[in-house]
From TrEMBL:
Residues 85-133 are annotated as: Disordered. It comes from the Bacteria. This is Transcription factor. InterPro entries: DUF6009. Pfam families: DUF6009.
Length: 133
């Protein structure tokens, strides 16, 4: 869950790779997965679909016990707002969801009015960005 991701757990991120246009997404779910490599597209074993993932720099060290790396994966489930706009998350968002516009390598992102299904955030209005709800 995003609330459980600490900034020091993602300090070795060097890039976020998006598999979809995030402008069309109000939120993405994020998790820290144990993966065998620092880079490359990870295997995906959840319902729904993977929409992005993080790449780690060479200074990232594997776990001593498992030899794996903790990398962020961004994903959505079939009942999320992008495919079910009037469904469970017509308003509100899952605990692990953040607005993809607030994400950057090494930054865990945050919820916004848009990700919660409410009015646009003041930051977007300030930038003159108008997004449909």
């Amino acid at each position: 869950m995003s609330a459980l991701i600490a900034e020091d757990e993602i300090i070795h991120e060097v890039e976020l790779v998006w598999l979809e246009d995030t402008d069309a997404l109000d939120y993405v779910r994020q998790s820290l997965d144990r993966l065998p490599t620092r880079r490359g597209k990870p295997a995906y074993h959840r319902d729904g679909r993977m929409v992005g993932y993080a790449l780690l720099g060479p200074e990232a060290k594997p776990s001593r016990s498992s030899g794996t790396f903790r990398r962020r994966v961004f994903w959505l489930l079939p009942h999320d707002r992008d495919t079910a706009p009037e469904g469970l998350y017509a308003t509100g968002a899952p605990a692990e969801a953040v607005d993809p516009r607030t994400l950057a390598p090494g930054s865990k992102g945050r919820k916004t009015g848009r990700s919660e299904g409410g009015p646009q955030s003041p930051e977007l209005r300030e930038l003159g960005i108008t997004l449909p709800l």
